[in-house]
Specification:
CATH class: Alpha Beta
Oligomer: single chain
CATH superfamily: Ribonuclease Z/Hydroxyacylglutathione hydrolase-like
Strand content: 25-35%
Number of helices: 7
Number of strands: 14
CATH architecture: 4-Layer Sandwich
Radius of gyration: 17 Å
Shape: globular
Distance between the termini: 6 Å
Length: about 250
């Protein structure tokens, strides 16, 4: 059974109880994938019993600070903790080009014995294979955000279940197709503004996609979970939850 841990649940403005949205996907056979890196996740990973070598991949949905600002310190700390195995980082060219510029500014080429970072550029189209391993098959789908952004569909092979993650997006039929029949849809609820979705719109997407369960994430932390869930239930009849930092979802 796969596990998805919420390392952060807030939209761009965080608080003491809610870090910026990033997630950790783990399988039973050692696959450990970090999704986004809006703040330094390493202390949380260490608290979960993971070492510098345990992270097998990183997927970046887009290059906004609340999704990538922790990357520089993460890579440095993994290096200082002794990581030696390569780390693949998946994302769109728009994102990874800026990652390279950022890391060049940090002069990562001068870090002695720095492990290999493999930047894997994904085309911006529907149903693009990101990675396929014994535990997961992950595809990327274009979201409707301010800048090029990808949503993710994760097929959990041992359980034959599907997890879908909207990333930052306004409502769009592409996200509905990405989430078709998902056992668990993790959908942003930052508000009905350009490039984002409200809780009601997230519910509507879940209903149209035929998702079985909806979890709201990337929301305004000034709103209560009860308020957000109630709004989503106006458009979605299935189970609705509001993610909190530290929550674990087994799929």
């Amino acid at each position: 059974m796969a596990r998805l841990t919420v390392l952060g649940s807030a939209a761009a403005v965080s608080d003491l109880a809610h870090d910026n949205t990033h997630l950790l996907l783990q399988g039973d056979r050692g696959t450990t994938i970090l999704i986004d890196c809006g703040s330094n996740p390493l202390p949380k990973l260490v608290r979960m019993g993971l070492s510098a070598e345990d992270l097998t991949a990183l997927i970046l949905t887009h290059f906004h600070p609340d999704h990538v600002s922790g990357l520089m310190i993460l890579l440095m700390q993994l290096w200082l903790m002794g990581r030696r195995s390569p780390l693949p980082i998946y994302g769109l060219h728009h994102c990874l080009q800026r990652v390279e510029i950022t890391m060049q500014a940090a002069m990562w080429d001068t870090w002695p014995d720095f492990f290999e970072v493999q930047l894997v550029r994904l085309p911006e189209r529907e149903d693009v294979l990101v990675l396929d391993c014994t535990e997961f098959r992950i595809t990327s789908w274009p979201a409707a955000h301010y800048i090029p952004t990808i949503a993710l569909r994760v097929e959990i092979k041992p359980a034959a279940h599907v997890l879908s993650y909207s990333a930052d997006t306004a409502p769009t039929p592409i996200i509905e197709r990405m989430a078709r029949g998902a056992d668990l849809l993790i959908h942003e609820a930052a508000g009905e503004t350009p490039g984002h979705s409200s809780a009601a719109q997230a519910g509507q997407t879940a209903a149209r996609a035929g998702a079985k369960r909806l979890v709201l994430i990337h929301y305004d932390v000034r709103r209560t979970p009860e308020e957000l869930a109630a709004e989503a239930r106006t458009t979605f009849d299935g189970p609705v939850e509001v993610a909190q930092d530290g929550d674990v979802y087994e799929i």
